[in-house]
Amino acid sequence: MIQAMLRLFRKQYRTRELLPEACDTHCHLLPQVDDGIRCHADALRLIAGMKAMGLRECICTPHISLRFPQNEPVGLRRHFEQFRELAAASHPDFRLHLSAEYMIDERFPRLLRREQLLPWPVAGDSRPHLLVEMPTGQLPMGWADTLCDIRAHGYIPVLAHPERYHRHLSADDFRRLHQLGIHFQGNIGSLGGLYGKTARDLCLTLHREKLYYRWGSDAHTPNAFAKLPLNP
Fold it and tell me: Do 62 and 36 touch, CB atoms closer than 8 A?
């Protein structure tokens, strides 16, 4: 009851305000590949939740990291095509895209050198982008150099949920990164305090200064949209 009352007083954001392309740019919808959706039925429930919020498409961004060594582009594409065919039977009007969320870890530089990557598609921008993240507990050594290496390989680095790195980086740090050409993808839940007050405050600052390039749900569960400060 208390949580329901708090949601009533929390600022709500319109889908068309945060996601004007009606596309969730970051979600773990593809089932049985990482710590996200576990089965096809739950994936279909999540799609229904997205549609209820006015979304018409989403980008599946499974984790590619040392934690999930089985995730490679060839296997993920095969798994994605099978799932897309299944999802089309229930939601033919909903478009799915495949990309990935790359952890900047010991494995990533090798993947970057081999160019075996799943770029992040961006509506209205044909330049190749790459969605990356970092551990929130401790930033990896050379992380800033890695972001520069991504640019040197011809990709625009997009740092997922920068507000969640508030223990290590300040708003000024992100302003400098933005000036260097690093893009930011914000988690909608951060606007409502889903990751804590400090992450929310940093998120609101970056949002107010229009430093976010795109927004996404970062959904890992079928009912994720019920927890977001979002209205259709």
Answer: yes
